[in-house]
Design a protein that fits this description.
Blueprint (H helix, E strand, L loop, with lengths): L5 E6 L1 E5 L3 E7 L10 E6 L12 E6 L2 E9 L1 E6 L4 E4 L4 E5 L4 E8 L7 E8 L10 E5 L6 E3 L5 E6 L1 E2 L2 E2 L10 E7 L4 E5 L5 E12 L9 E7 L2 E7 L5 E5 L4 E18 L7 E3 L2 E3 L2 H13 L8
Antiparallel strand pairs: 1-22, 2-3, 3-4, 4-11, 5-10, 6-9, 6-11, 7-8, 7-10, 9-12, 13-14, 14-17, 15-16, 17-23, 18-23, 19-22, 19-23, 20-21, 24-25
Length: 303
């Protein structure tokens, strides 16, 4: 067994998208080869309705797939193909934008005002950039959960893990998408396919993704008694962990346990031409997409 080293650990950064939705971005709009085939990961957990209710009004996508995972609240969606629906707590939606789609996503909080969830963008290879758009909505009750003897819990959203297969399939990047909880003090080793790029995103508790005895957070500069000092942030919340090569990762959970998404996928290794929600292979293809938007031919007729 070859343990994957931690290449980088960093905090998600606060940003604003849509019509004024406050969220945190773990990665996106930077070097697309870093986590190929994944392009962007947004954490839209928020407890203040004014910071999310304006949502994401009508906007285009082409050349990518999006995977949305809702923890609390609901997301109402509609698109240019006439599809409508609502994602509730625990639900997942996979959308293949393919040749082009216009859609909107409008979040609503739960009874406590919480709107919690994540969205991942996965690239499409050149051979599928102009494929027909499609959706797959999956209810949370359809997602298998495995509970190990030490209390570790794994929800298998996409891919196969410990003998279970997630209900979302047909994604070009062939990803594995797991929601993992490791109890306090437990050290756990989890397999990851050798040929995949992999990352973890911590959203509850704290843990160390190294072969270490003590859990550590990421190193941050903070002001203590008027002086800047480097300390270990043990919260772990909104922390991205990027892994090197190997066939497994090890996590040592902290005092409150740790919950994280473990996501991996096979790299596409193709050129990327990217502007906002449109991702193609060349600048010429990107310029054509812009022309299609301007002249009303962005949505292709069904074959």
């Amino acid at each position: 067994m070859s343990l994957r080293p931690t290449l980088e650990t960093r905090k998600a950064t606060a940003t604003m998208e849509g019509a004024g939705v406050h969220l945190h971005r773990a990665f996106g709009f930077q070097d697309p080869s870093e986590l190929d085939p994944f392009l962007l990961f947004d954490d839209f957990r928020n407890d203040v309705p004014e910071h999310y209710l304006r949502g994401f009004p009508w906007h285009p996508h082409r050349g990518i797939e999006t995977i949305t995972y809702v923890l609390n609240g609901t997301v109402d969606h509609g698109d240019s193909l006439g599809n409508t629906g609502s994602l509730g707590a625990g639900d997942v939606q996979w959308m293949t934008a393919g040749s082009g789609i216009l859609h909107q996503e409008m979040p609503k909080g739960n009874a406590d005002g919480q709107m919690h969830g994540f969205q991942l963008w996965a690239n499409l290879p050149s051979s599928l950039k102009m494929t027909a758009p499609r959706y797959q909505d999956v209810a949370g009750k359809e997602i298998p959960e495995i509970i190990d003897d030490d209390g570790t819990r794994v929800k298998v959203i996409i891919g196969s893990f410990w003998g279970k297969t997630g209900p979302v399939d047909g994604i070009a990047a062939d990803p594995q998408y797991l929601d993992v909880y490791v109890p306090a003090g437990v050290k756990k080793t989890l397999p990851v396919d050798t040929y995949r790029r992999a990352f973890a995103y911590v959203f509850e508790g704290a843990g160390a993704f190294t072969d270490a005895a003590d859990p550590t957070g990421i190193l941050l500069e903070k002001e203590v008694n008027g002086a800047e000092v480097n300390i270990r942030d043990m919260s772990g919340d909104r922390t991205l962990v990027r892994f090197g090569t190997g066939d497994s990762i090890t996590v040592q959970a902290g005092e409150q346990g740790v919950r994280f998404l473990l996501i991996s996928g096979a790299p596409i290794q193709e050129p990327v031409a990217w502007h906002g929600p449109i991702v193609m292979n060349t600048q010429a293809e990107l310029q054509q997409a812009m022309r299609d938007l301007r002249n009303g031919t962005f949505i292709k007729p069904a074959h």
